[in-house]
Specification:
about 40% helix; 2 domains; Nucleotidyltransferase, domain 5; five-stranded mixed beta sheet; alpha/beta; 13 strands
Length: about 350
């Protein structure tokens, strides 16, 4: 077991979820902390503390961090995090210095997508797209069994595709982003508005939460599962927007499967059903092409930490083959062209 255990840490906008994960994707120990949102050094302190606690009972070979932000192509620096204080934060090296472990850093959705491909809903699929619906929308792409990160490491930020020009303001600074119409934020916003208006559903959720500012989208899902017609309609509307966005992604990427994860996916078929219908209705070339499957993720909220741990373990072992694709050749050629030539 000496080289088989890794720590996976999933850092979100509100919580840090961590676990010790074996090579089969099983979580052997778990910890959870609140995310320090204003001081990057406090996040590193939290990671160090979690790692120290796990190492008391387990021999750890590597540490993987799934970060809710833009991670550069070298998987070392968090360039930007909409909901955290990271700006060009050298997270990998900072954590490695503090822990003494091999460290891998990636976007949290990339980690979740890898976990679903390795151990979850997408096993056996060559090409897949993961869409995570939480406070916002994250995403991951796996092509031919390899995570696709793009030229600069930022591929998969589907939530910030503009779907409504001059639409709702987004935390990223733009307007009309997809996540403003198809995420848990939408359900939270509608639920709080209903509570302020004093509707029957709004008052029901207000009583459950104990305050308007404590009402979350999960309460809408809870009411929908209990049969509330209005809550079901709200989730169906989110599902409709979800399906439209998926159709756009299918036009661009043409994967065999879309995996839907994140907290909003707890609504199950109340969300997935409308999404499939909207996808089929708006897909380019519908009726003349194969349609990708749309399925719910299998690993739930722990996918991110499972994937981060597995990626870190494989990176430490150097067993995952490098992708000798066009981008690697382009980078090598560019580097060669920039090198000074020796005079004869």
């Amino acid at each position: 077991m000496a080289d088989k255990l890794a720590i996976g840490i999933d850092i979100g906008g509100t919580k840090i979820a961590a676990g010790v994960v074996d090579e089969d994707g099983h979580i052997l120990a778990r910890l959870r902390r609140e995310t320090p949102t204003t001081d990057p050094l406090e996040v590193i302190e939290a990671i160090s503390s979690i790692t120290e606690e796990f190492r008391r009972d387990h021999h750890i070979a590597a540490l993987g961090v799934g970060a809710a932000g833009f991670v550069d192509a070298s998987q070392s620096t968090v360039l930007f995090a909409p909901h955290l204080a990271w700006r060009n934060e050298p997270l990998r090296d900072s954590v490695a210095r503090r822990t003494g472990l091999p460290v891998m850093v990636d976007n949290d959705a990339n980690a979740s997508g890898w976990a679903e491909w390795r151990f979850g809903a997408a096993q056996g699929e060559a090409d897949l797209v993961l869409i995570t619906l939480g406070t916002g929308i994250g995403g991951a792409i796996v092509i031919d069994g390899q995570p696709y990160r793009g030229q600069f490491g930022i591929a998969g930020e589907f939530g910030h595709m503009q779907v409504v020009p001059n639409g709702r303001q987004c935390e990223c600074g733009n307007t009309g982003c997809w996540e403003q119409y198809a995420s848990g934020r939408v359900l939270m916003r509608r639920a709080r508005a209903a509570a302020e208006e004093g509707t029957e559903l709004g008052l029901k959720m207000l009583a459950e939460a104990g305050g308007i500012d404590r009402i979350e989208g999960s309460l809408v899902t809870q009411q929908a599962k209990a049969g509330d017609v209005e809550a079901i309609e709200w989730i169906a509307e989110v599902g409709d927007w979800l399906g439209v966005g998926i159709a756009n992604l299918a036009a661009a990427l043409d994967p065999g499967m879309f995996v839907i994860g994140g907290g909003v996916s707890d609504a199950g078929d109340l969300l997935i059903g409308p999404a499939r219908a909207a996808f089929s209705r708006t897909l380019t070339g519908r009726g003349y092409r194969a349609e990708a499957r749309i399925v719910r993720a299998h690993l739930g909220p722990e996918a991110g930490l499972i994937g981060a741990a597995d990626m870190a373990r494989l990176t430490a072992r150097r067993r995952r083959p490098a992708n000798p694709g066009a981008r690697a050749r382009v980078r090598a050629a560019a580097k060669s062209s920039r090198s000074p030539r020796r005079r004869k």
